[in-house]
Amino acid sequence: MAHERTSDSIWLEQADTPDSSPPPSSTTVAVIGAGIAGVSTALHLASAGVDVTVLEAGDIAGRASGRNDGQLLLGLGEHYNRIHSQFGAERAPLLWDFLQRNHDAMLAELRSANIDCDLRQAGGLRLAETEHEQHELRQAAALLRAEKRDHELLEAGDLAAHLPLARGFHGGLRLADEAIVQPASMVRGLALLAQSRGATISTGCQVRAVDGEAGDFSVVLADGRRVAAQVVVHCSAALGRDLDRTGLLGRTVFAYRGQIVATDDLPAELASQFPDCAMSSNFCYEYFRMHRRRFVLGGMRWSVPGEEVHVVDDGSHHPQISENLIAYARRHFPALADVPFPHVWTGVMAGSPDGLPLCGALPGQTGEFALLAFNGYGLSFAFLAGKCLSEMIIDGESAHEALPMFTPRRFVGQRT
Question: 0.85 cut: is pTM over it?
Answer without folding.
Answer: yes
